[in-house]
Structure formats: C-alpha cells, structure tokens
Amino acid sequence: PLVLGIETSCDETGVGIVRGHTLLADAVASSVEEHARFGGVVPEVASRAHLEAMVPTLERAAETAGVRLHEVDAIAVTSGPGLAGALLVGVAAAKALAIGLGKPLYGVNHLAAHVAVDQLEHGSLPEPCLALLVSGGHSSLLQVTDITTGVDPMGATIDDAAGEAFDKVARLLGLPFPGGPHIDRAARDGDAAYVAFPRGLTSGRDMERHRFDFSFSGLKTAVARWVEARERAGEPVPVADVAAAFQEAVSDVLVRKALDAAATAGIDDLLIGGGVAANSRLRAMAVERAERVGVRVRVPRPGLCTDNGAMVAALGAELVARGRTPSSLDLPADSSQPVTQVVA
Ligand code: ATP
Ligand code: MG
Ligand code: FE
C-alpha cells in the first residue's frame, strides 16, 4: 500500500511516504535550533513551528515521492505520546487530508513507529522480536509479537530516559542541545575507561525488583559530581574522556539488559530504535555482544532513528497490509498514549 505518514510529536515536523517497505520520501523540518538556547524543547514554540512547516513539508514529500495525494491508500499520523499542542497540529492535518481525499485515517503510536521504521531498511520485522526503544522521552524493553497489535513492555526507565541523560550530561560538559550527537562525536577521541561511572539497577536487590528496568538519574548525578570536583580543584575537565565514559556506561546497561531480556523471553532477534539508537557506541557494542550469544541485531540507519514521518508511514503501511481497522475521524491527540495501544 501507498501510505503517507505525519509526525509532529515533538520538535520535528515529518512527512513520509512509503509503498509497502519502500521509502519514497522522508521530508523533515526541525525547530531544534529555536529551542537550543532554552536547553530543551519549548512546547509552544514547537507547536507554532509545526503550523508553519506542515504544508511546505507535505508538499516537499509529495514532490520527492512523485506522488499525487489522491493516489495514497491511507493517511497515518502520530496520535501520541508526545507534546499535546504539537500532536494536535499533525492530527488536524491528517484529518483534513483523510476527509478531503476520502482515505482511511490511522492514529498511530509514536513508539511503535520507532520500531516499525526498521522495515524500510531491513524488510519485514522479525516477529517475535525484542525491541530496545531508547529516545528522548522513553527507554523501554518491549516484546513485539505483532507490531500492529502485540507490543508488551518487559521493563522501562524508572526515572530519566536515555536520551534525556545524554542531553543533561552534554549540558554539564558545555556541549549544545540536543546533546546526544555531540557526546557521540566528542567521545570518539576519549578513553571510555577513564572513569567507571555507575551502571544503574544492575546488581543485588535492584536486579530482583528491576531486572529489565533502567535508571539513568544516578549516572547523571555521578557525572555532575565528578565534573564539579574537577572544577573545584581548578583542573580542566577532559570532555572527550568523560563523554566516552558516560556513553560506555549507558550503552553497557542498555545492551546487557536487552540481551538478558531476549534470553529470558527466548527471542533471537533484537531491534533497537529511537533517537539514542543513532549512537555509534551503542550500535557497535550491541552488534558485538549479541553476536557472541547468537542474537541477531537490527538497527535502522541513524537518520531513521530520530523522529521522522517515514516511521509513521511505515507503521501505517503495515496496518493497511494486515487489514487493521482505521481510527475514527474524531481521533483525539493523546499525549500519554500507552505503548500497548498501537492504533488509537
Ligand atoms: P520520544 O520518542 O520518547 O517521544 P523524542 O521523539 O523527543 O522522544 P527522539 O527524536 O526519538 O526523541 O530522540 C531524540 C533523543 O535522541 C535526544 O535525547 C538526542 O540527544 C538523542 N540522540 C540523537 N542522536 C544521538 C546519538 N548519536 N547518541 C546519543 N543520543 C542521541
Ligand atoms: Mg527532536
Ligand atoms: Fe521519538
């Protein structure tokens, strides 16, 4: 099926067009630079930017794909989770298209879309698979038996998301927002063994209660204390080394728990998605350790890991292909749509 997908849950206005597993267009406009000086996404600024970017991004996607809008089989849109005002812009645009063109509308889950996007790169999803979803707002281990109906959480972060930790630590190190890509780059010249930062929820009692959960706020505090101590002593902070050691700690916990969860669930396919899946160390470590235990790893290319419309179209195409019931035309934006609800 030919499906158009719209994404506006945070600060990227994305419109993607796919035909089955084939990506035809992936137009993204980002308001990230408008938020940078605030050190985080400002919801009102994001909503306004979506309003301004929606129609031009839609036109750009249609032109790139060489598709006329009336040719599409369905419209998919992120209905949640995300920023309420930002989601509303995409949902309103999708409804207008669905009604105007007389096409079915699918309000889809942003997190499931971060997983489904991999089929644009590597073909049909292996089902069941274990998905490690790591992004700016979420860090979860999901058992996926059917990406259109069966997404079951095994664990999640009990405090900060992995991407949030990257962004906060980047700030401590004086790197720009969003920090993930800057830490990734800085860490290339660093020594990952320079400091042994804590691995949250990986030992003792914590493992009994939180075996598949994550915690990154203690790690962030440990980095903050370490940096402060250096500054108090009047010594320079080795940014590359701290970035590398922090990135090592995050990747180590993510990969360890993902492989433990896969083994426990008896699943041989690990899929990594979300913005943090763009991280070069996480990708390399996952491939290396998974190979040792006979688990196959799939990670979409970095450009498809961060927010985009193609991921929404990819999930929409799967819903159409499997004959799932479309959403109602009075579809609401649901800022806290649970990961188990793939279609609203
Ligand atoms: P959610 O998907 O939970 O709603 P979001 O949509 O805001 O959150 P994404 O766009 O999926 O998040 O991911 C953004 C996050 O990914 C940011 O925290 C950013 O720092 C992080 N990120 C992006 N690239 C990298 C990288 N190379 N290394 C580490 N983190 C990265
Ligand atoms: Mg973003
Ligand atoms: Fe996201």
TrEMBL record:
The record lists Fe cation as bound by 110, 114, 307
* Localization: Cytoplasm
Residues passing through the membrane, by range: none
- Coiled-coil positions: none
Start and end of every Gcp-like domain?
23-313
Cofactors named for this entry:
Fe(2+)
**What's in the keyword line of the UniProt record?**
Acyltransferase, Cytoplasm, Iron, Metal-binding, Transferase, tRNA processing
Q: Does the keyword Lipid metabolism apply?
A: no
The free-text cofactor remark is:
Binds 1 Fe(2+) ion per subunit.
Q: Which residues bind substrate?
A: 133-137, 167, 180, 184, 279
Provide the catalytic activity annotation.
Answer: L-threonylcarbamoyladenylate + adenosine(37) in tRNA = N(6)-L-threonylcarbamoyladenosine(37) in tRNA + AMP + H(+)
Record-listed E.C. numbers:
2.3.1.234
Q: Name the top EC class.
A: transferase
A Pfam short name: TsaD
Asked if the keyword GTP-binding belongs to this entry, the reply reads no
NCBIfam families assigned: gcp_kae1, T6A_TsaD_YgjD
Give the family this protein belongs to, as stated in its UniProt record: Belongs to the KAE1 / TsaD family.
Reported function: Required for the formation of a threonylcarbamoyl group on adenosine at position 37 (t(6)A37) in tRNAs that read codons beginning with adenine. Is involved in the transfer of the threonylcarbamoyl moiety of threonylcarbamoyl-AMP (TC-AMP) to the N6 group of A37, together with TsaE and TsaB. TsaD likely plays a direct catalytic role in this reaction.
Name assigned to this protein: tRNA N6-adenosine threonylcarbamoyltransferase
Q: Which gene encodes it?
A: tsaD
